Amino acid sequence: MGAEVAHHYRHPALPEVDLLRARFVTHRFGRHTHDGYVFGVIDAGVEEFEHANDGVERAGAGSIVIVNPGVVHSGHAGTPEGWAYRVMYPPVDVVAEVAADLGARPGTPAFAGPVLGDPAAADLLRAVHRAGEKGDALAASTLLRAALAGLLTRHARVRPDGASAAMPAAVREARDILHANLVGPPSLERLAEAVGARPFALLRAFRDTVGLPPHAYLNQVRVRKARALLDEGLRPADVAAGTGFADQAHLTRHFKRTFGVPPGAYRSARGIGRVGARGPREAG
Q1: Do 245 and 222 touch, CB atoms closer than 8 A?
Q2: Distance between CA 226 and CA 235 in Å, rounded?
Q3: pLDDT band, residue 277 (cuts 50/70/90)
Q4: Which helix (DSSP H) or strand (DSSP E) does residue 95 occupy?
Q5: 231-238: long-range contacts (C-beta < 8 A, 24 or more apart)?
Q6: Which helix (H) or strand (E) holds 47?
Q7: 5-10 and 38-51 as β-strands: parallel, antiparallel, unpaired?
Q8: Which of 115, 171, 252, 280 shows its CA 20 to 30 Å from the CA of 4?
Q9: At 6, is the pLDDT very low, low, confident or very high (cuts 50, 70, 90)?
Q10: Residues 20-57: pLDDT tens digits?
Q11: Phi and psi of 148, rounded to 5°?
């Protein structure tokens, strides 16, 4: 399939919606989560990924990969040739708005399976990308809503807000401490002491509830904060220092394992620091 390449860019009408078009062979996404949804259509090859609720999944050409918000997942090539795909990352409110327009009851839409066979929806997802790459805001926004409407109608259910299992108080308190201490976080022992728990008991409860152990969860919070700081125009070296990463290389490694592109390419593709920049740029 050729060399690896990744383009990360904004939807031209909805800048809060990210788009990724990529071909990966050796790249591996680490176990991570997103605040919003992941909708990917496989153009060629096979992607294999670990999905917290369904074990290891394989998605071949023409299939759609869907990950609900907050679900831990990974991603890597399922064949030696790798895979090529197009991914859309809409936030929860964008998807919920379309669901409400369709008459769904209040709540957060949830999709039942991580791999779907829906050729019509796959074609619409590809069309969203093509319109986005051309900067056609009207077509891209129209096609996005049409794609979401089809997926919601055929494959989603609405989960009432607050329906998920309650988070144990110790885990919630530990999570809040980590959010407040991106730089210089406490050890597991100190963290457990702060929330009134034993270290191993907290580790097990945190992993079972959140899907990641505390140190891995902290790196996810750091990456998300780093992304927000990059969007504000900060340079990667300053972002690394401000989010608790050891250096820019450490930030780059974790950022690419989550978003598929390094911070510098992400910053460039979003036009940060350049006047009049538009459209996707190749990651490097």
Answers
A1: yes
A2: 10
A3: very low
A4: helix 92-101
A5: 231/270, 231/272, 233/272, 233/273, 235/267, 236/263, 236/264, 236/267
A6: strand 38-51
A7: unpaired
A8: 115
A9: very high
A10: 999 999 999 999 999 999 999 999 999 999 997 668 99
A11: -65, -40
